[in-house]
Amino acid sequence: MKIPLHHSVIFLATDAEELGLYGAKAFVDTPVVPLDKIRLNMNLDMLGIGDRRNRLYIGGDIDGVISEAIAAIETTASFQVVGRFPRQPRGFGSARRINYRNASDHGVFARHGIDFLFFTTGDHAYYHTEGDRFEQLNLALFGQATEAIWSLLKHIDGSNLRVQK
């Protein structure tokens, strides 16, 4: 039996994130619904390769409801859900530190007062290189991550989440 979600969900695929978050900016500049009706932005970014720890990182506005849901989706020893932004590895690509609160499309939504959750399996050796190809994907990790995010979305949807504005 399929149970529908209680809230509407917009699936938005953006482009040109690396060039200046142009896709996310275009959406908030001409939204399909008023921005004050958007309760939460769930940004899925770099879910396919991960690091040797097989972790799904969830950063952002994590309150008690979301922390409870995160605990509920930790399902196997080979896959760990971590309620924080990933730590940038030493010597990773640049001496510049990544500010994960603004480093992806969710930063655009946050600047418009929309709470967010940022999902990633972490940085990897192919990040922003020509080696970042389909063949590098860890399909098992990708599947586990997307199932965990779906589980979290259903939990949040059914929780009467009260987002502070």
Automatic annotation (TrEMBL):
Descriptive protein name: Peptidase M28 domain-containing protein
SUPFAM superfamilies on file: Zn-dependent exopeptidases
Peptidase M28 domain ranges (all copies): 5-151
Gene3D superfamilies registered for this protein in UniProt: Zn peptidases
Transmembrane segment boundaries: none
Pfam hit, one: Peptidase_M28
